[in-house]
Design brief:
Elements lengths: L2 E5 L10 H18 L3 E4 L13 H9 L6 E4 L2 E2 L5 H14 L4 E6 L4 H7 L6 H18 L1 E5 L4 E6 L12 E4 L3 H10 L2 E5 L5 H17 L9 E9 L3 H21 L6 E2 L2 E2 L10 H7 L1 E3 L1 H15 L3 E5 L7 H31 L1
Helix pairs in contact: 1-11, 2-3, 3-5, 8-9, 10-11
């Protein structure tokens, strides 16, 4: 199983500086590379403390010079907020800068607050995403664009920047809409989904939705690979486990606020909104993957058996958690959880060939 590290880079309170968040992120990526993670993912959000990363391409390019093996992914570039003629060049440059380690995660976006400030409507976000996706893939493949679409028109244009990976870096797509799934099946893209605070149940629901839609499109359910993401916290401490659950609840409340028009934001800090029919803190703790190394390994192995993902992204530093605890969790993941999973995999291979 290939693991990823997701970096949202939130800032819960003004007591923590943005430079501290950046340093902690770089430290976590270094740990991930040392542990053998496949990809470090960087988020994109704007104008609030939910994330201080406005450009995942910039973050990936910055980290490219500080790493040598780990792949660098955007999770995700919010395509409707870009001009594809610029982005196609930046992706090619990132692949060159990183020595062919770029991974392109794309999505349509969902936050009214962000879209309003860019003067872009959420109503046509899927159409824009698909059109821009076409332009970017074509440009990366051929270094040539001549395109007339509904949202972008580009005259006959050639450019010299070509990605090292051919025909272009891998694409991951954070959308399960029918047109996105159809395009993913046609192009070989991977669908990327999160369990959010629902954990494995959320992932199963998303997988089932994807399969239903693929069947409705007349496509086999295995025609599109699946990548998944979970909150992870490895700890022997019950107090730390409860604190991690509170961090997940806080994140869910912030998302609830951002998911509605007109969230309350004071000096750039989102005022969390209690969820409708919000579960207990104990339920948050039960849903997500929090516990000792053996428990975490068992939960991940169960996810892999149920969902058969091609990639498993882990979110360690969330909800304003103390960076020391996040790093300790990740150290335990690399030193204890990953060997347990590898040992389990080896036993399964031996049993299959016995």
């Amino acid at each position: 199983m290939k693991f990823g590290l997701f970096n949202l880079m939130p800032l819960r309170t003004p007591a923590t500086s943005t430079s501290t968040v950046l340093k902690d992120t770089l430290d976590m990526v270094g740990m991930a590379e040392q542990a053998g993670f496949e990809v470090a993912w960087f988020a994109e959000h704007h104008f609030s403390n939910y994330s201080i990363s406005p450009s995942p391409v910039m973050m990936a390019a910055h980290v490219a010079g500080r790493t040598s093996r780990i792949k660098l992914g955007t999770a995700v570039v919010v395509l409707p907020l870009y001009h594809p003629m610029r982005l196609v060049q930046e992706i090619a440059m990132l692949d060159l800068q990183s020595g062919g380690r770029a991974v392109v995660g794309i999505g349509s976006g969902y936050q009214h607050y962000e879209f309003d400030r860019f003067g872009v409507s959420l109503d046509d976000k899927i159409e824009r995403m698909l059109e821009y996706w076409t332009v970017i893939e074509s440009g990366l493949r051929t270094q040539h664009i001549d395109f007339q679409g509904k949202y972008v028109s580009a005259p006959d244009t050639h450019f010299l920047l070509a990605p090292l990976q051919k025909p272009f870096p891998p694409f991951f797509v954070a959308s399960m809409t029918p047109p996105a799934l159809k395009r993913a099946a046609e192009t070989g893209a991977t669908i990327f989904t999160s369990g959010t605070f629902l954990g494995t149940a959320g992932l199963i629901a998303n997988r089932d939705k994807m399969h239903r839609t693929l069947r409705q499109l007349g496509l086999p359910v295995d025609s599109v690979p699946l990548a998944v993401q979970q909150y992870i916290h490895v700890t022997h401490s019950k107090a730390d486990a409860r604190e991690a659950a509170e961090g997940v609840r806080y994140t869910a409340r912030v998302l609830a606020a951002l998911g509605q028009p007109g969230p309350t934001i004071i000096d750039g800090f989102i005022q969390p909104k209690e969820l409708e029919n919000e579960p207990s803190l104990e339920t948050f703790e039960k849903n997500i993957i929090i516990g000792d190394p053996e428990y975490v390994a068992e939960r991940i192995a169960n996810d892999v058996a149920l969902l058969n993902p091609v990639h498993y992204s882990c979110y360690f530093h969330f909800g304003g958690m103390d960076s020391g605890k996040a790093k300790k969790s990740m150290e335990l993941f690399g030193s204890r959880v990953m060997p347990l999973l590898e040992s389990r995999k080896q036993r399964q291979k031996e049993a299959a060939t016995a």
